[in-house]
C-alpha cells in the first residue's frame, strides 16, 4: 500500500516528501480553506514541491454542480504548473461527477471520485473510468458503520471484476485504520501528517534509544 498525504499544508507536505514515503497528495475544499490561501496558487505550490509523486488531487469547487461546470473547472486546473502530469481532478460522487469523470478519462486526465460510502458508488466510479476512488472510512465509523469493511469489500470487488481503479482509503484517523486498510487491500491510504508521525513511533523504540544513549555514555573514550 502506498501513502498519500491528506492536506493542503505545504510544510507538512514537504516534511512527508523528505521522508521519502510519499506517493501523492490529496486536498479538498475544506483543507484548502483551512490554509487561507488561493486554491489554484496552493495547488501550483504543491505540484512544484512534490515532483516525484504519482498524483496531486485538486477537487472541483462546490460551485461546480453540473458536469459542464466541473469540466470547465477541470480544464483550468489541468493547465496549472504548465500542464503538470500529476494533477488529478477530484470529482464528487454524483451523477454529474460520473459524467465529468468519463469525459476527463477519455481526454487522458487522471480522476479521483470522492465521498464514496458504498460498494455500488465505487463500482459506478470505476466503470466511469476513475483512476482512483476515495472511500471515507472515518466518517462511516463516526455513524457506527465499519469503514474498513467497506474498503475490504471494494477491494474484493475490484479484484474479481478485474478493475484497475485504485482505492484511496480516505478519512483515516489513526494508525490502526492504516494497518487495517493495508490488510484489506487498499492500494493507497491518504493520511494527515499527524498520523504519519504516529506511524513512526513506539514507546519501546524511544526506550531502546534512551538505553543505547545511556550505555554509550559509559563507553571507553
Ligand atoms: O480525504 C478525505 C478526508 O480529508 C476526509 O477526512 O477527517 O474530514 O473525514 P475527514
Characteristic key phrases:
221 residues, alpha/beta, TIM Barrel, eight-stranded parallel beta barrel, 8 strands, globular, binds SN-glycerol-3-phosphate
Number of strands: 8
In the CATH classification, which architecture applies?
A: Alpha-Beta Barrel
Order of helices and strands: EHEHHEHHEHEHEHHEHEHH
Structural class: alpha/beta
Strand order in space, largest sheet: 1-2-3-4-5-6-7-8
Strand content: 15-25%
Query: What hetero molecules are bound to the protein chains?
Result: SN-glycerol-3-phosphate
Low-confidence stretches: none
Shape: globular
Radius of gyration: 19 Å
Protein name: Probable transaldolase
Main location: cytoplasm
Active site: 90 (schiff-base intermediate with substrate)
Pfam family, one: TAL_FSA
Amino acid at each position: 500500500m502506498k501513502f498519500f498525504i491528506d492536506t493542503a499544508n505545504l510544510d507538512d507536505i514537504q516534511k512527508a516528501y523528505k521522508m521519502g514515503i510519499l506517493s501523492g497528495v490529496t486536498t479538498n475544499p475544506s483543507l484548502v480553506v483551512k490554509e487561507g490561501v488561493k486554491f489554484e496558487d496552493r495547488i501550483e505550490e504543491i505540484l512544484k514541491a512534490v515532483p516525484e509523486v504519482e498524483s496531486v488531487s485538486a477537487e472541483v469547487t462546490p460551485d461546480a454542480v453540473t458536469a459542464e461546470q466541473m469540466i470547465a473547472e477541470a480544464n483550468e486546473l489541468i493547465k496549472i504548473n504548465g500542464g503538470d502530469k500529476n494533477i488529478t481532478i477530484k470529482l464528487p460522487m454524483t451523477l454529474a461527477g460520473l459524467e465529468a469523470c468519463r469525459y476527463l478519462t477519455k481526454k487522458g486526465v487522471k480522476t479521483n471520485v470522492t465521498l464514496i460510502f458504498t460498494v455500488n458508488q465505487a463500482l459506478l466510479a470505476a466503470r466511469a473510468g476513475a483512476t482512483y476512488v476515495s472511500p471515507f472510512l472515518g466518517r462511516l465509523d463516526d455513524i457506527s458503520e465499519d469503514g474498513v469493511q467497506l474498503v475490504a469489500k471494494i477491494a474484493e470487488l475490484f479484484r474479481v471484476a478485474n478493475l484497475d481503479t485504485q482505492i484511496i482509503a480516505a478519512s483515516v484517523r489513526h494508525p490502526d485504520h492504516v494497518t487495517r486498510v493495508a490488510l484489506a487491500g487498499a492500494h493507497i491510504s491518504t493520511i494527515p501528517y499527524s498520523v504519519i508521525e504516529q506511524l513512526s513511533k513506539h514507546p519501546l523504540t524511544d526506550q531502546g534509544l534512551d538505553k543505547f544513549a545511556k550505555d554509550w555514555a559509559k563507553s571507553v573514550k
